[in-house]
Amino acid sequence: MGFREKYAELGERYERIDGPLERFFDPLRRKASRFVAGRVLEIGVGTGFMLPYYPEDIELHTIDAVPEMLEVAKKKAKELGLNASFYVMDAERLEFPDESFDTVLSTFVFCTVPNPENAMKEIHRVLKPGGRAIFLEHTKSDCRLLNWLFLKPLDVLLGFLLEDNTLRETHLLARNYFEIEHEESHYRGIVRLLVGRKV
C-alpha cells in the first residue's frame, strides 16, 4: 500500500493525529504565509492546515494527490470564506503551464513525495522567473545523535504508517534549484523554513 492509499484511509482522522503537533507548527505556518504573493500554488494542501493563514489578496490554487484529503480542505476553505481552487494532482507531474505562478508553497510534503527531485523540478518549472518557492519541511537534523535517537526510530514508524521519510535533506535539494533568500532551522534542524527565488 502506497502513501496515497494510507492517507486516503485516514481522511478526516488525519487532523486528529497530526493536530497535537500544530501548536509547534502554527507559528511557522504563519511565518511562511507572510512570504506568499500574487498567484499562489500550494503543493500537498492535505486537509488544509495552511488555509487559515493566507492573505486575502492572493489567487490561491492548491493540489493534493489524495482526493479524500482534498475534500476535507475544500470544506475548510468554504467555512473560512476562502476563494481557492482545488485539483487532484501529483507533485511530480504538475498539470500547469510553465511559469504559471508567482509563489509555490510546500509544507511538510517532501517527506512523502516518492521522488523529491522530480517534484522540485516541477516547482521550478511552474514558477515565474523571480518567483518565490517556500518550503516548510521535516528534514534531517544537524545533530547526528538526534538523528539516531529520535528521527531514525520515527522514520521507521512513519514509514510504515504513512510512507513518510523524516530524514530527507530537502533544504539541500532546494539549493540546487533556487537562490535561497531566507532560511530558518527549528528544533535542531528537524524542521526548516526556506524561501528561495527562481533566477
TrEMBL record:
<dbReference type="GO" id="GO:0032259">
    <property type="term" value="P:methylation"/>
</dbReference>
<protein>
    <submittedName>
        <fullName>Ubiquinone biosynthesis protein</fullName>
    </submittedName>
</protein>
<dbReference type="InterPro" id="IPR029063">
    <property type="entry name" value="SAM-dependent_MTases_sf"/>
</dbReference>
<keyword id="KW-0808">Transferase</keyword>
<dbReference type="InterPro" id="IPR013216">
    <property type="entry name" value="Methyltransf_11"/>
</dbReference>
<dbReference type="InterPro" id="IPR052356">
    <property type="entry name" value="Thiol_S-MT"/>
</dbReference>
<keyword id="KW-0830">Ubiquinone</keyword>
<feature type="domain" description="Methyltransferase type 11">
    <location>
        <begin position="41"/>
        <end position="135"/>
    </location>
</feature>
<dbReference type="GO" id="GO:0008757">
    <property type="term" value="F:S-adenosylmethionine-dependent methyltransferase activity"/>
</dbReference>
<dbReference type="InterPro" id="IPR023576">
    <property type="entry name" value="UbiE/COQ5_MeTrFase_CS"/>
</dbReference>
<dbReference type="Pfam" id="PF08241">
    <property type="entry name" value="Methyltransf_11"/>
</dbReference>
<keyword id="KW-0949">S-adenosyl-L-methionine</keyword>
<keyword id="KW-0489">Methyltransferase</keyword>
